[in-house]
Amino acid sequence: MQDLRAALEGAEVGFVPTMGYLHEGHLSLVRRAREENGTVVVSVFVNPLQFGPNEDYQRYPRDLERDARLARAAGADLLFAPEVAEVYPEGFATRVVLTGGLVERWEGAHRPGHFDGVATVVAKLFNMVRPRRAYFGEKDYQQLQVIRRLVRDLNFPVEVVGVPTVREPDGLALSSRNVYLTPERRAQATVLYRALVAARRVAEAGGTVQEALAAGERVLAEVPEFQPDYFAIVHPETLEPLEAWVPGARGIGAGRFPEVRLIDNLEVYPR
Ligand SMILES: Nc1ncnc2c1ncn2[C@@H]1O[C@H](COP(=O)(O)OP(=O)(O)OP(=O)(O)O)[C@@H](O)[C@H]1O
Ligand SMILES: CC(C)(CO)[C@@H](O)C(=O)[O-]
Ligand code: BAL
């Protein structure tokens, strides 16, 4: 990859990092990158460093041939799919560690070490691909803010582009992990999105942050099989919980069915 990149000297590279098993959410990132850059690189790498010991690293869905076909059709020029031993060879000993509330809250609290794993691999990928722009989904909203912080803090000459969440017609955010949903769970899986929409409705009707949160929590309680990890209304950049509305306030949530963990977010703000 580094040799290829060197041969592309002068090219404006748009980069879409993924863990593969591509769907329309990923492909919207690739299409956006295609519109804005001369060369588009997509990476597929299931990064062991960002999975906890009891998470789904082993069973994470993989289909590289299908990914290659879909990425090419959406406009990718290069698909970079390294092996684990290539990214983390024997003796690899470096970590990129963020500190403070941005990484300690929410996903950081429920997936210890997760954002260090993400930051480490993204820093490595940026050094290998040397993109001008990099594309991340708003679906992983906290991750997007963590990457923005990483890029500012370590002076990566990369413009981070956040891309809106692509959803199923009933509102469920597309995710590779949705393949774990049985038909019964699939029907229940809109609960998180419906909770976020309920919170937004209260906000738009002039309610307080506390009233909006309560409305969301009532919807979550309708599906007892869904165990929320957190549900909050937060500042859009620091992700600190809000007492009162600020522009761009974001509702964020995640939780678990026995067989799959869901995550979602929505702008929740009185217009
Ligand atoms: N529905 C979506 N809409 C827009 N972007 C998305 C969507 N789903 C994932 N992305 C983005 O695609 C990039 C790669 O994500 P990843 O490969 O982890 O896919 P995923 O579907 O989120 O899988 P996971 O099941 O791990 O959550 C990330 O920047 C992520 O935010
Ligand atoms: C950014 C990323 C590719 C790093 O492994 C991953 O966290 C993802 O797919 O969102
Ligand atoms: N989509 C974010 C990466 C992860 O869940 O590990």
UniProtKB/TrEMBL annotation:
This is Pantothenate synthetase. (R)-pantoate binds at Q50, Q143. It is an enzyme of class 6 (ligase). Its EC number is 6.3.2.1. Its main location: cytoplasm. GO terms for biological process: pantothenate biosynthetic process. ATP binds at residues 19-26, 137-140, 166, 174-177. Keywords: ATP-binding, Cytoplasm, Ligase, Nucleotide-binding, Pantothenate biosynthesis. The keyword Ligase applies. GO terms for cellular component: cytosol. Catalyzes the condensation of pantoate with beta-alanine in an ATP-dependent reaction via a pantoyl-adenylate intermediate. It is found in: Cytoplasm. The reaction proceeds by a bi uni uni bi ping pong mechanism. The active site is at H26.
